[in-house]
Amino acid sequence: MIRELQKSDIDQVADIWLDTNLKAHYFISAQYWKNNFELVKEMLSQAEVYVYENGKMIQGFIGLSGEYIEGIFVSVEMQSHGIGRLLLDYIKNRKTKLFLNVYQQNTRAISFYKREGFEIKSYSLDKATGEKDYFMTWQQK
User: Which residues lie below 8 Å from residue 61, measured CB to CB, with a gap of 6+?
Assistant: First the structure.
């Protein structure tokens, strides 16, 4: 089931955020993610966030700022089970276009987004991490 984030979900969602960032972004210092953990927890309550829940356990979430996808995060043990696609489809049914940035070294995420109809439009440097990223877009057909 996909539903809106509730205040009581924040700790669980923040833990998924940290775990998945540490795994997917091994090329960025773990300390960077740990240093931003409390800020992210604070921001979650103010953002547009939808969670995927199964049996009272949150297994993933998607965060948005308008049409910009801040990120899709699926718990490490539930990755490659279609949860990311379900969350993305949920948003695609509510928006006509979407944008996101993805680190160039995160080839798994790039492949996922390309499969889901996103196109690379440009690339830049993330000032916070010093990593190159792609700007990707999706438009409803």
Answer: 5, 13, 16, 49, 50, 51, 52, 72, 73, 87
Distance of alpha carbon 108 from alpha carbon 23, whole angstroms: 12
Spatial CA neighbour of 86 closest among 68, 109, 60, 65: 60
d(CA 54, CA 78): 11
* Overall pTM surpassing 0.85 (yes/no): yes
Mean pLDDT of 106-114: 95
45-71: pLDDT as tens digits: 888 999 999 988 999 999 999 999 999
Written as one letter, the residue type at 72 is I
Written as one letter, the residue type at 31 is Q
Task: List, as one string, the DSSP characters of 124-141.
Answer: EEETTTTEEEEEEEEE--
**What pLDDT does 56 receive?**
85
